[in-house]
From TrEMBL:
SUPFAM superfamilies: FAH
Protein name in the entry: 2-keto-4-pentenoate hydratase
Species annotation: Pannonibacter anstelovis
Domain of life per record: Bacteria
Length: 252
């Protein structure tokens, strides 16, 4: 088998297995050794192929991670698991509370000419509170970062709150977050994210295989609350800075 043939076989097998897991709501211990991506670019290519196999609409929602073991990372959020608050969802494993930013203009990757924070902030038109729905397709705890990228960084969906016009910047957002479960304050491990920094890291990394950020796209920017296990039915609500609200009823 030639190197190109081996690469094609690896990508084909990995994307088919991941797409089937998403269709069935299942998980694997991890990919077979011969199907594991061997670089971050292979992980991103598997993202693209899984999206194509699922037959979803063009990607307009994204997950970003400003820092990872090999730098900024990103993943598409598949359209079949995107909901608008107040949302009702049957199955949720875990969730994270995040700030989502919507672009008002394209931010294509500029090789050798990184965007400044001011440019990124000027490109944001709206923001909203969001619940990222989380579930890994891997049962093993020791998967490599390339496999995590292939699995879209454990994204399993998104609930998006009501958009509000955006101006200025967001500093120390976690101090203004209230998270409730069934009307009771939900304890969480506060994480003071930098939404603009997360978006800036994404657009300057150029890693995705879907063509970059475009006007109208929504980007979630990191968890303010850590991961909340949410396998049981219940009502989750959050409020940020007395401006942004979100509501999710889990029925499953």
């Amino acid at each position: 088998m030639t190197l190109d043939a081996a690469l094609e076989a690896r990508l084909t097998q990995a994307s088919a297995m991941l797409a089937e897991c998403r269709r069935q709501g299942g998980a694997l211990e991890r990919l077979p050794e011969e199907a594991r991506p061997q670089s971050m670019l292979e992980g991103y290519e598997i993202q693209r192929r899984v999206h194509a196999l699922l037959g979803d609409a063009p990607v307009r929602h994204w997950k970003t991670s400003e820092t990872g073991p090999k730098g900024a990372m990103t993943a598409p959020i598949h359209g079949s698991r995107i909901f608008t608050s107040p949302a009702s969802v049957g199955r949720v494993n875990a969730l994270e509370t995040e700030i989502a930013l919507q672009l008002g203009q394209d931010l294509p990757f500029r090789d050798g000419e990184p965007y400044t924070r001011e440019e990124v902030l000027a490109a944001v038109s709206h923001y909203a509170l969001a619940f990222e729905l989380c579930a890994s397709r891997w049962l093993a705890k020791d998967v490599e970062v390339e496999e995590k990228i292939a699995d879209c960084l454990s994204n399993d969906g998104l609930v998006l709150g009501t958009p509000v016009p955006f101006t200025g910047d967001i500093i120390s957002p976690v101090k203004r977050l209230v998270l409730m479960r069934d009307g009771t304050p939900e304890p969480f491990a506060p994480n003071d994210i930098d939404p603009a920094g997360s978006l800036m890291a994404y657009v300057n990394a150029g890693g995705d295989r879907f063509g970059g950020m475009k006007a109208g796209d929504w980007i979630i920017t990191g968890s303010m609350s850590g991961v909340q296990n949410a396998p049981a039915p219940g009502l989750w609500t959050a409020r940020w800075d007395d401006r942004l609200d979100i509501s999710l009823t889990i029925t499953g």
